[in-house]
Design goal:
The protein is of the alpha+beta class and about 210 residues long. It has 6 helices and 5 strands. β1 and β2 form a beta hairpin. The chain starts with 16 loop residues before the first helix and ends in an 8-residue tail after the last helix.
């Protein structure tokens, strides 16, 4: 008795060309984001001018997310977050000076956050929502508190440093970046908090 030959597995169908191109673009985007983040981790530590660092943060955020970005610096003396840098806007459409009040609840949320994005989200914070949806921007958005790095010794509390805002977009590049947005934003907040905290240490605010 001669057993029959094993069945021949059908060849794996090739991805449609459009899908394959999309995968390649996504992989290229991921590599580019990783390189940009690595460069900022190295170079950002050398910047000690808060306004210059705020511009670097918004420029980096715009490049890795392809979304218009706003950076508000927190001024504890007046308990307000003040717009200090934007990226992704044509010169004629840049938002004017803006600010919104910060409550004690937001400061407490920063101090108790667990590293996840949900506790840092300002998506539904009334004063910011009113500012962005009724002002010159008039677009939906995502926003997060920027905390200082946690003190491993536990001797000092985590501080609120600022607020990062990303305006919603509908172009293809937004969709292409959607697969790892959460990880990207978490890393942006961590690195921004680390460098910005160092830059403003001992610097009077508001900045000159």
């Amino acid at each position: 008795f001669i057993p029959p030959p094993p069945p021949v597995e059908p060849p794996t169908p090739a991805l449609p060309e459009a899908t394959e191109n999309a995968v390649v673009r996504l992989q290229d985007d991921q590599r580019e984001r990783a390189l940009l983040m690595d460069q900022f981790i190295r170079d950002g530590a050398q910047i000690r001018q808060p306004r210059l660092l705020a511009r670097r943060i918004t420029d980096l955020t715009h490049r890795v997310t392809a979304r218009q970005c706003l950076f508000f610096s927190y001024l504890p003396g007046v308990r307000a977050a003040v717009l200090v840098s934007v990226a992704g806007y044509p010169e004629s459409e840049k938002p004017p000076g803006m600010s919104f009040p910060v409550t004690a609840e937001l400061e407490q949320r920063v101090q108790s956050h667990d590293g996840g994005l949900s506790t840092l989200s300002l998506k539904d914070f009334g004063p910011l929502r009113k500012l962005l949806l009724t002002g010159s921007t008039q677009s939906d958005y995502d926003a997060w508190l920027i905390p200082s790095p946690k003190d491993p010794t536990g001797r000092s509390k985590t501080q609120l440093l600022g607020v990062l805002v990303l305006m919603k977009g509908n172009d293809e590049s937004d969709v292409a970046r959607a697969s790892d947005t959460e990880a990207t934003i978490r890393e942006l907040l961590r690195v921004s908090g680390q460098h910005y905290g160092e830059a403003i240490r001992g610097t009077p605010r508001p900045f000159p």
